Amino acid sequence: MTRALGLLFGGRARRRWIHLILGGALAMPYVLVGSLIVGPLTGVDDVFRSLPLQLGSFAVGLPIASVTSLFPLTRPLESATVRALCGVDADALAAGPARTAAERARTAAWFTLHLGLGGIIAGMSLALPPFAVVLIALPAFAGLRDTRLGLPEVLDHGWVLALSPVAGLAALCALAACAAGCGALLARWAPALLGPTPRDRLAAAETRAADLAVRNRLARELHDSVGHALSAVTLQAGAARRLLDTDPEFVREALAAIEETTRRTVGELDAVLGVLRDGDAPGTAPAPTLASDLEGLLRRTRAGGQTVTATVGLDPAALPALVSREAYRIVQEGLSNALKHAGAPVAVRISAPGGHLEITVENPLGAAPAPRPGGGHGLRGIADRVRLLGGTAQAGPSADIWRLSVRLPLTTPPMAADARPRPLPEGTA
Question: Looking at the domain 204-409, which fold is it?
Answer without folding.
Answer: Heat Shock Protein 90 (3.30.565)
